[in-house]
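**Discrete fold encoding**
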Amino acid sequence: MPGIERVVESKPLNGRRIAVTRPEAQVYPLLSGLRELGAQAISYPTIQISDPADLAPLRACIAELELYRWVVFTSVNGVERFWRQLRVAGRDSTLPQGLEVAAIGPATAGALEERKVQARVVPDEYVAEAVADALIADGAIAGSRVLLPRAAGARQVLPERLRAAGAAVDEVVAYESVANREGIKALRKAVEGGEIDMVTFTAASTVRCYVDEVGPSLGSARVAVIGPITAKAARAVGLQVDVEAREYTVPGLLEAIGEYYAGIEEQG
């Protein structure tokens, strides 16, 4: 109507062009969260998740699940790939009675809940060190046989600490993170063209695959990471970390990015 000004909603990330490097199957929560905050969020997956070259070790462990006291999941991908092989084995997607489950954080615990499994242990800090500490504090690790299905090339701190606490740990590769060259190429082109204000990394593998393919240059784009392990991987390959989430989750990363840009606006 004449004489009435249109009110434009101000959002904390209005006009910010932010790249999301997660694999395509997991991009939605971060992508949609950024867009809800006003950002122009674009998916440039730097990795893709695939089965390991040899599934026999994982399948052998699944065939002997009744022998384990614990199974420990350190990612949503680990849960998904493990359950895929449960179905292949004809186990009706269920775990043996008495098998306890641990999850590295709320997203992984949520993936388990979708499969009607309640994690007995979920640490307050979502890193491998905290998982080990929580399991040891639970008091049921010494003398237990533990299955650890996870990514190829994962850090050794978790199995090493559990073994030191007296557990018999079977570490098995459930999936691999490999470079998504198409996504990496598209991201490099956008960065070189000055089209990206910030690049988000939610796992060390998303950093390494990008840098291994095209080097550590991100032009003028800022770098935001989901937590200390990803931050360490980024700095190790020469990237400057501008934003690090205090809570190592997608909501935590969204909050940290919002605070970063709010601080810039206040300074301006």
In short: The mean pLDDT is 92. The CA atoms of residues 51 and 182 lie 19 Å apart. Strands lie at 17-20, 40-43, 47-50, 70-73, 100-103, 145-151, 168-179, 198-201, 222-225, 243-244. The first helix runs from residue 28 to 36.
